[in-house]
Design brief:
Helices cover about 55% and strands about 15% of the residues. It has about 850 residues and is an alpha+beta fold. It folds into four domains: about 200 residues, no CATH class; about 170 residues, no CATH class; about 210 residues, no CATH class; about 170 residues, no CATH class.
Length: about 850
């Protein structure tokens, strides 16, 4: 066919079947949007962080970094500058702190103390105003200003803020608000800068720095690295300047794996929705092909026409899906990264690469082409040109019993295949779930046929059900259309039950961890916002002062920090003897909590996350070497645990071991136990008064700390719930639209019933019965398969990502989702059903 002929036939189809094409396009757009939004949201975290890191390090290639928050002697900078091949070197002192604005709003920020050598190095962008490093002031980024309620490039410069750093609060003047023109991508991160000497004074770390950025001369990078290794003496970390990007990718990997699994399943189900939506157009397309063949049109021309129409529909729908997906990635799927903020400097921008566009749009075109190609089976030389018109029921709708049985047998085989994959390796969960979803669709025809037979038997027994026989006859006459609608319901329920159930189990597991983590004290004293207790504060006499408060039974010092272990930034939790029992009891994977707690108390032993042990090829009883600030130290593994929702992994050790290995006695939190009968609220208020407003420490009840940890860690997995919810909404909308389209296209049949004397209310009852049977059969199939899908996804989340997971059966959730989906779809479809039931009887005569 020539191009004008292809356009003519497609315009003609759009005039006659515009609603069907719109429905198919909506299904494709939804699928493309799901894939695109999830991929963009996932990649934006690492992408924006990469921009932030590069804005800081500039052209530096290497860095010398402390292994603890206390840093190292700043005189090391002079030794680094004298290494042959070093072009420039710049010092940093970095600490996590809290800034409180004039109106009481608080922002947790990464504070960097540096000097003008960083500008020479071209870090923090070459346009960094020198006023940002003026004595007595602090420069904050635009993102920090926004968090404090003072947006704008020069808003409120000169105002006073309070900086809570290492247990001390200091008033400072805002010297500059740094926007994109000054610090580039760093303006999107919550960061503050100040002069190095002032920062050292406020932190109580005189003469200490935490990092040196190094730019080497061309061709001298290897020699410079070797020199840095000699200076480190096995107590400092030598790494690439942009190492944080790789560490962040590793930290995001488990949550990304969970999100990718959910997104991939959501995309698969979305494409199945699109495929089912296209199936609704198959009867009319088959009739059009039959008419063309009878008219003498060549097979190649018909293939050309079908593929052209699929390409047009797929392109338009994919473009709409990409636009919708971008909006979703920014406003809905934008992942919260607050749970990573204590270990990484993160941006908040949205980064769109070529990969998400190609995968999403390519998938949309593929689904459209595959579904559009089904009518081309009629081009077989073994089929008569008018075969579609001699089939039983409405032309193009016939599905034989043998076909139903073959499809069901295929479904059983696919379930067996998925079970085998699931049993062999949990990492094959995506493939297994995809196979289960396909099996669900293949099982629908036989289940639907069984429902029709059961309803026929009921209609024969109960003669008063006069509406049921008419509805059954109509469903049998439009089998393919009915199956497409039923399969849409099956896909919707499968995804909602499987994804929603696994997400609930995951969130319950995180809540269980949060409860056990704070259970070792009634009241906690720590730096503001430091939920993981990794930021030190002055040991002074805080614990002694708190112990003197009436109602306080005991005060224990807790310690912790982050440790780079290979490519992971691991969370180290150090607690006094016996203070890890609660959390270990709920998070042990291998070993026993009692034995592990006793061995930790004895010293020389640790409990580590299972994925760390597997990566290092050690188990319980084995030895793991840790690169600590005092050099490499070897510990025996007493138990393996989950990752406690910190995706890179966790290491438990005793406070004594931590103090020796990190060479510090500074606490990162104080755990306060109250005497029996003491009022927690009154005790908290008394502790706050005892510490005074200048302490810069936050006093919180165990319940409040638990809620904050639960909220923060759950936010990082919020995308999982958004995918499951959006899929459910999309499925309900698609089913309602499909029902509405199907009802509207059958107005001539309804007009014939009205011509024979049927009242509108009776027609509405017939349509309601049909829709209930179609959706009921499909949704029931999907709900049952979804329960098995949840088991597969649970195993993946537990064994591959390492997240704490509370395994439980589906309970009443499948029934609740079943009722919700069917009810909402029927309610939405009732609107076109009401109008269609009032179709003029004369329409049937016009057809004649």
């Amino acid at each position: 066919m020539r191009p004008y002929a292809l356009l003519y036939f497609y315009r003609r189809r759009l005039r006659v079947h515009a609603v069907q094409e719109l429905l198919a396009g909506i299904g494709i757009a939804i699928a493309v949007a799901l894939v695109f939004a999830a991929l963009v949201a996932e990649g934006s975290i690492a992408g924006s962080a990469r921009e932030v890191v590069h804005a800081v390090v500039g052209p530096a290639q290497l860095q010398l970094r402390a292994r603890g928050g206390g840093g190292f002697d700043e005189r090391v900078l002079e030794r680094v500058q004298h290494i042959a091949g070093v072009k420039q070197a710049a010092p940093f002192l970095e600490q996590t702190a809290s800034i409180v604005g004039p109106d009481g709003r608080r922002s947790t920020v990464d504070v960097a103390g540096t000097d003008v050598s960083l500008a020479v190095l071209n870090g923090l962008a070459h346009t960094l105003p020198i006023v940002a490093l003026s004595p007595g002031g602090i420069g904050i980024t635009g993102a920090t200003a926004t968090a404090l309620g003072r947006g704008g490039p020069d808003a409120h410069v000169g105002e006073m803020v309070s900086l809570a750093l290492r247990g001390v609060t200091t008033p400072l003047k805002v010297s500059a608000v740094l926007g994109p023109e000054a610090v580039g991508a760093l303006s999107h991160a919550q960061v503050a800068v100040m002069p190095l000497a002032r920062m050292q004074q406020l932190a109580g770390l005189q003469g200490r720095i935490t990092r040196i950025l190094v730019q080497s001369k061309p061709g001298a990078q290897s020699a410079v690295r070797a020199g840095l290794e000699r200076i480190s003496g096995g107590r400092l970390e030598v790494a690439a300047a942009d190492e944080d990007v790789a560490l962040l990718k590793e930290a995001l990997r488990p949550s990304d794996q969970a999100s990718e699994l959910f997104a991939a399943i959501g995309a698969l189900l979305g494409f199945l929705l699109a495929f089912n939506a296209m199936l609704l157009t198959v009867p009319e397309r088959r009739q059009a092909i039959a008419d063309l063949r009878i008219a003498g049109t060549r097979r190649l021309a018909i293939v050309q026409m079908v593929l052209f129409q699929a390409l047009c529909l797929g392109l338009v729908a994919s473009l709409v899906g990409l636009l919708l997906g971008y909006v979703l990635s920014v406003d809905v799927f934008h992942q919260s990264t607050g749970y990573l903020a204590e270990a990484f400097t993160l941006g908040s921008g949205t980064v769109v690469g070529a990969r998400p566009v190609l995968l999403a749009a390519g998938g949309g075109l593929l689904a459209t082409s595959l579904a559009s190609a089904i009518p081309l089976l009629d081009l077989s030389r073994r089929r008569a040109r008018d075969a579609v018109y001699v089939e039983s029921g409405a032309p193009g709708n016939a599905v034989g019993g043998a076909t139903e049985r073959r499809l069901f047998a295929g479904a059983v085989g696919l379930i067996a295949l998925a079970s085998g994959l699931f049993a062999s390796t949990a990492s094959a969960a995506l493939v297994a779930t995809a196979i289960l979803a396909l099996a669900t669709v293949l099982a629908v025809p036989l289940v639907f046929a069984g429902v029709l037979r059961a309803m026929s038997a009921l209609a024969e027994r109960l003669q008063t059900l006069t509406t049921l026989p008419v509805a059954l006859a109509s469903l049998r006459a439009t089998t393919l259309r009915s199956l497409a609608l039923a399969a849409t319901g099956a896909v919707a329920l499968f995804g909602s039950v499987a994804l929603g159930g696994s997400r609930e189990n995951l969130l319950r597991g995180i809540r269980g961890f949060a409860s056990s983590y704070v259970a070792d004290a009634d009241i906690w004293v720590a730096n503001p916002g430091d939920n993981q207790a990794v930021n030190e504060f002055s040991p002074d006499d805080d614990a002694a002062r708190v112990a003197r408060v009436p109602g306080v039974a005991s005060v224990r010092a807790f310690q912790g920090g982050f440790l780079q272990l290979g490519g992971r930034r691991v969370w180290v939790i150090a607690r006094p003897s016996g203070a890890s029992r609660s959390v270990l009891q709920s998070q042990i994977v291998e070993g026993t909590a009692g034995t592990a707690s006793a061995r930790l108390g004895e010293g020389g032993s640790i409990a580590v996350s299972e994925q760390i042990a597997k990566e290092r090829h050690v188990g319980v009883g084995g030895v793991l070497a840790l690169p600590t600030p005092t050099g490499e130290r070897r510990f025996r593994i007493a138990a393996t645990t989950t990752n406690l929702a910190w995706s890179p992994g966790v290491i438990f050790m005793s406070s004594g071991d931590f103090a020796r290995a990190w060479a510090t006695s500074a606490p990162t939190a104080l755990g306060v136990d109250l005497t029996p009968g003491a009022n927690p609220l009154a005790a908290r208020a008394a502790i706050e008064r005892q510490l005074g407003p200048a302490s810069g420490l936050e006093v919180s009840l165990a319940g409040a700390r638990r809620a904050r940890i639960d909220s923060l860690t759950s936010e990082g997995l919020g995308q999982l719930g958004e995918i499951a919810t959006l899929l459910l909404i999309a499925a309900i909308t698609a089913m309602a639209a499909a029902l509405g389209s199907s009802i509207w296209q059958r107005r001539e049949w309804l007009a014939g019933l009205r011509l024979s004397g049927a009242k509108p209310y009776r027609l509405r009852r017939i349509l309601l019965t049909e829709a209930s049977l179609m959706l009921g059969a499909g949704c029931l199939t999907g709900a049952v398969a979804g329960i098995y899908g949840q088991v597969v996804i649970d195993a993946y989340l537990k064994h591959v990502t390492g997240f704490p997971l509370a395994t439980s059966l589906a309970g009443a959730r499948p029934l609740e989702i079943f009722a919700l989906v069917v009810a909402l779809a029927l309610v939405i479809a009732a609107v076109p059903g009401w109008f269609a039931s009032r179709v003029p009887p004369a329409l049937a005569l016009e057809k004649e």
